[in-house]
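Supplementary notes (optional reading)

For those who missed the lab, this is the record we used. Protein: UTP6 protein. Length: 567 residues.
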Amino acid sequence: RAVLRKASALEYKIQRRALRKEDFINYIQYEINLLELIKKRRARIGYLFKKDEIEYSILHRVHSLFNRATGKWKDDVQLWLSHVAFCKQWNAKHQLSKVFSTMLAIHSNKPALWIMAAKWEMETRLSSESARHLFLRALRFHPECPKLYQEYFRMELMHAEKQRKEKKVFEQAKMDLGELNYSEEILNGEMARLVYREASQKIQGVEFQLAVLSIAKLFDFTQDLQKEILESLQSSYADDPLTWDYMARRELELGPLQPTEQTTKQKKVAEMAQREERCCAVFDEAVGAVPTEGMWKCYITFCLERYNRKTNSEELKQKRLERTLSVFSKAHESNLLPEALYKQWLQLLLDFNLSDKAVEVAEAATKHFSLSVEMWQLRLQVLIQLKRDDVTQCFEEAIKHVKSKGTLPLWILWVQWSEGTNSKEDTEALYQRSLRATTPPESVTMKEMYLDWTYRNGGYKKVKRLFSSLCENRPFSLDFFRKMIQIEKEQESCKMLHLREYYERALREFGSTNTDLWLDYIKEELSHPQGKAENCGSIHWRAMKMLQGELVEDFISKYTLLQTGHL
């Protein structure tokens, strides 16, 4: 009776004139939950009869609900995918085939859906023909989609592998293969080769070639195909750093030049060192042939990867470190070291206490990237960490080189360093200077930091004078006012008069966009010993006038919760 009552209520909702998607989703979810419940109960009591009358009728109803929903809201891909997932879960192959067909007719502009359908045909229905047909249809809509070609290429190789396995089983069973026609061309992956050649004409770029090559390497019968892709890669993309990167890393996968029977730990280390040397030889050739930032980045990334690999051999670790530092130096000397890699180089130098070299590198980096805030920040952090005497001089130099916009990180670093190193007078003068030097939006952060530092070092009276002074120049942040309110609350003789002043100043700036500020003001009037509860009405009236749009409703609901004691 409960099931009937719930199902009837859900059915009425989807029979309305104005249909809602949520009603269909709730009905479908209820029916799916009911199916799961029946499944569990059958397993518990061991009752396996009347499936046609029970499960199949519910399944049919769910499919019809999905069909109605996807017919009404055709653009909702998630709804289609939910139907696909349901069909897979309940093994409704015939129904799923129809769903894919309808979905692809509507959403033919989404390659991922074509791939999903073809994959299902290939892996679940074991139909290579249907999968191939879907891929060919997809390529008519997306003739230059790399992912489609990659998956089509993979599918043809999977088909070839499946046929090879079938043939091998039949031959082992000594069965007559007269009727079965296993074409040698298909068995050797010729279909995949045709797909690759077609794709290469339409899709340019080394990334696609490498993706196809990585797929081909998963199959043990594609040596000729791999060779062809590799030759194409070397001839068409010889100047691309990724080609050289692949060729160099390939040396790691190749076996030792002189195979040995004994494999002791020492020999393994020697062999790994030999492989890495071969990789570096290719990279050295590469940076000579293609002297670009991208090529050096590939080389350095490889060296850092090898250095970060765990090894018990101290000798190998030392070799990797020396090689990495050497490559960094060579790239730097060529003026082709990317900005982002200077940070890793400096970190490596500092980790091994090469402080003089780190200072030298940081200085060279700021000369090369004199307008980069990150580079100056990096150099200053190195000098601060090493406790050098020329930190102030470097800060002055940085501020002179970098434009005023974007210098906030430098000023923050400077005042933080000054707080722990210089006198209070010098730090205060620096804060005052930072407010003048930074752009108005950036000065907001400096005001907050200045207020906090003054309270910690100068006390309440001084911070109050500073607050009044800073309030003369906009802009402000909400945290700036909240910080002052918090400071006032921390005093033994916390005066409501001062709190009102701070709240009023904050509301002038943020009263039209922040509901919590109004509510905090009302709470303060109610909870403070010197507060006046009768002021709450006027604060509420002002809030209703100042707040904009949906914020009024938000304020009303929160104020109601406050009155009932739930906030």
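If you only remember one thing from this example: The chain has a mean pLDDT of 91.
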